[in-house]
């Protein structure tokens, strides 16, 4: 796998946004007394919606837009029709990174299956939280209700970064209707988060500080790629600046729960990720998952999905076809 200018562009356009969200993941976001996530003001919401709209313009036109009512709020889901039969893919982005982060991945993933993208509840995006989310179980419940509202009986979950944690958190608690789980460089699933990430994120976590501080952190997480003037990254920065997130910090998923996971699982680990010790993550994944369930991309950063979209889609295609073959 080699690096090139197009790959670096994809890295910026897709993967970089997920890393920004880790600032909120570790609980450094400034919170007020409201029990639910919200925009700071009407003007703040308008500013975010403008950036969200510019980022969404990078995606194909959705074939359907769904607003799914759950016990914790309304979840925005977009459907994109692909060209293959079988259970669809449901994509879960990183924290504070809504559906537009998949712009670089949809062309190749739509050759695999139909695709749903989800704006995570309680995050900047088009989902609207209206009840406190206080525990990991709450996080699983709203997603379970969302998936049960889709017309398909079974789906393949694909989660990126904290979206990987979100997918694993659900699958280890309520596996009904989940045909398989793909975890793309997930945080707090196979390894702990390094202290260095927390330290480096502190200056970038305050919304009133210069945008350049957040850009610097994002570039570090994506192997030094530039992040300026990228629609998806601008959307993430706007969300961090204009939206107050009120969610519990996720806890590390115990190994015994991952070992007992019922749906087939694929762990895709970035060898150069700064979000965990990659060697430790691979060792844990190989110990807890069946043989052949771990794919290491040795030269990838945490922005793996943006650096290697076609390779990732090929691995996902082989995995989901095999998972469905096991069910027959």
TrEMBL record:
One of its GO terms (molecular function) is monoacylglycerol lipase activity. Residues 88-195 form the AB hydrolase-1 domain. GO terms for biological process: acylglycerol catabolic process. It comes from Murinocardiopsis flavida. GO terms for cellular component: membrane. SUPFAM superfamilies: alpha/beta-Hydrolases. This is Pimeloyl-ACP methyl ester carboxylesterase. It holds the Pfam family Abhydrolase_1.
